[in-house]
Design goal:
The chain is α+β, with helices and mostly antiparallel strands. It has helices at 26-38, 71-79, 136-144, 194-206, 212-221; strands spanning 2-9, 45-46, 55-63, 86-94, 104-115, 128-130, 148-151, 166-177, 180-187, 236-243. Strand 2 and strand 3 (55-63) form a beta hairpin. Helix 3 crosses helix 4 and helix 3 runs parallel beside helix 5 (212-221).
Length: 262
């Protein structure tokens, strides 16, 4: 028996997804909650590992419980044992051929940036912030240069453990919603800090510190030292997990904070 669940979480209260000796990961909290329903602690595997401070509006995970339970137990029951800021919103019984991580066809991240002279208050920690006006058209032109299959070493953190820096970036879009800029990235996979590094470079272009074609040059150089500093984690959400149709799973959850470019 294999159960797939979808969950959302506010990353500010955790040291990232992955279990840690200090038990500060989202995985730690989820495994404790699942154990309360399953009767013993069992491993929970996620579609993607988020860093400290990074949120998820749609994370998928699976586990193999030792005993059958109603699907509502894996939603409401588990939620009753989870800390504030984490919520499971559906559960589904899957075949043994399904794997939350290795069955993924495409992942997506959304970054929400507050572009206003005054820092955010109500949404502090849930959106990024840049105080000077940004040229959205220039940023869009730069983002288009990133599309396709490339070596993204220039946007890779030094501690990244990915086997290859080559990724197929299928979407790099930017939408303006009032004082907010919403970035959407989709790819077959992402490197450690890749999205935050891309956003940092796009903000540099939007601020007029570099022309759009500069981003193409950085990409081609494959040198991290040429790119902009890593942008803050606050506005980053894991938002899209796509599986093959045979698994019958949705690809998105509830839109973070209502920030939908549609």
């Amino acid at each position: 028996m294999r159960i797939a669940i979808a969950l959302e979480y506010d990353g500010r209260g955790f040291c990232g997804w992955q279990s840690q000796p200090a038990a500060c990961g989202v995985q730690d909290a989820l495994e404790v909650a699942v154990a309360a329903i399953a009767g013993r602690r069992i491993p929970v595997v996620a579609a993607g590992r988020t860093d400290a401070g990074v949120h998820a509006s749609f994370q998928v995970a699976h586990f193999d419980p030792p005993h059958a339970r109603p699907l509502t137990a894996w939603v409401r029951g588990v939620n009753s044992h989870l800390p504030d800021g984490v919520s499971v919103f559906w559960a589904k019984e899957m075949s043994g051929g399904f794997h939350a991580r290795f069955s993924v066809f495409e992942r997506g991240y959304r970054y929400v940036l507050f572009n206003h002279p005054v820092r955010p208050g109500l949404l502090r920690g849930r959106v990024g912030w840049h105080h000077r006006p940004l040229d959205v058209d220039s940023m869009r032109a730069a983002a288009r240069l990133l599309l396709g299959r490339h070596d993204f070493s220039a946007f890779r953190a030094a501690e990244c453990q990915a086997r290859s820096p080559i990724k197929d970036l299928r979407r790099a879009e930017l939408h303006k919603l009032g004082d907010y800029l919403v970035f959407d990235f989709r790819a077959d996979g992402f490197l450690h800090h890749m999205v935050r590094n891309l956003v940092g470079c796009l903000v540099q272009v939007g601020a007029g510190a570099a022309p759009p074609e500069w981003l193409g040059q950085v990409l081609a150089a494959r040198d991290r030292t040429l790119a902009a500093p890593t942008f803050m984690a606050d506005g980053l959400y894991l938002s899209h997990i796509l599986y093959l149709p045979e698994f019958g799973l949705p690809s998105e959850g509830r839109t973070p904070g209502g920030f939908s470019p549609a």
